[in-house]
């Protein structure tokens, strides 16, 4: 299926979920993450949810990371195409961007090459680890700046599509994708 079609389909499906279902599924996704072999690392990149877009609530994942004393890094949009990454600390202050994304005002910047695990937002994904985001290319650009061995974990309310038909060379594949019921692994040993 084409990315444009998948964006429409999964935006509508996500919008139809009740707040209770989104919260319950977000907690299930966080619990599923505990089964992944990713907890021995230090630096974890976590997107903060866009409430208006009814995204997965990542607060339970944040609690897990903080409980495990991990360094949590959060993104901020810079210009029209780039992300900058900040270490989350007790003194980090946030503001809502023009896209209603909670972003740090300032802080300690972290290079993408320092990251070990990146939790990736998405609308849809396929059985090959390809993902569909909002179409702006922020995460593909960001992930291409990370080390080759960075672990990319997608988070989805919905199960995999069979195939995304218009994948591009610049699209970065996931290593895992976690849904409330399933952990998908894409060629990771």
From TrEMBL:
Class of enzymatic activity (EC top level) = ligase
> Do the record's keywords include Lipid metabolism?
no
User: Which Pfam family, just one, is annotated for this protein?
Assistant: 5-FTHF_cyc-lig
Q: Which residues form the signal peptide?
A: none
GO function term, MF aspect, one: 5-formyltetrahydrofolate cyclo-ligase activity
Tell me what this protein is called. 5-formyltetrahydrofolate cyclo-ligase
Gene3D superfamilies in alphabetical order = NagB/RpiA/CoA transferase-like (3.40.50.10420)
Q: Does the keyword Ligase apply?
A: yes
For this protein, the record's SUPFAM superfamilies field holds: NagB/RpiA/CoA transferase-like
**Highest taxon of source:** Bacteria
- Known catalysed reaction(s)? (6S)-5-formyl-5,6,7,8-tetrahydrofolate + ATP = (6R)-5,10-methenyltetrahydrofolate + ADP + phosphate
Which co-factors does it depend on? Mg(2+)
Q: Which UniProt key words apply to this protein?
A: ATP-binding, Ligase, Magnesium, Metal-binding, Nucleotide-binding
Q: Spell out the InterPro entries in the cross-references.
A: FTHF_cligase, FTHF_cligase-like_sf, NagB/RpiA_transferase-like
What EC number(s) would the UniProt record show? Answer: 6.3.3.2
Family assignment from sequence similarity: Belongs to the 5-formyltetrahydrofolate cyclo-ligase family.
């Amino acid at each position: 299926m084409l990315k444009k079609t998948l964006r429409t389909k999964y935006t509508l499906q996500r919008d139809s979920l009740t707040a209770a279902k989104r919260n319950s599924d977000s907690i299930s996704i966080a619990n599923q993450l505990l089964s992944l072999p990713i907890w021995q690392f230090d630096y974890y990149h976590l997107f903060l949810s866009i409430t208006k877009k009814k995204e997965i609530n990542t607060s339970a994942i944040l609690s897990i990371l903080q409980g495990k004393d991990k360094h949590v890094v959060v993104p901020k949009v810079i210009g029209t195409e780039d992300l900058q990454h900040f270490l989350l600390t007790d003194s980090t202050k946030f503001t809502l961007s023009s896209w209603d994304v909670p972003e740090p005002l300032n802080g300690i910047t972290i290079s993408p090459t320092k990251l070990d695990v990146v939790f990736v937002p998405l609308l849809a994904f396929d059985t090959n680890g390809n993902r569909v985001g909002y179409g702006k290319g922020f995460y593909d650009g960001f992930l291409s700046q990370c080390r080759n061995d960075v672990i990319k974990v997608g988070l989805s309310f919905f199960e995999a599509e069979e195939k995304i038909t218009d994948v591009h060379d610049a699209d970065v594949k996931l290593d895992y994708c976690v849904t409330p019921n399933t952990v998908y692994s894409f060629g990771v040993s």
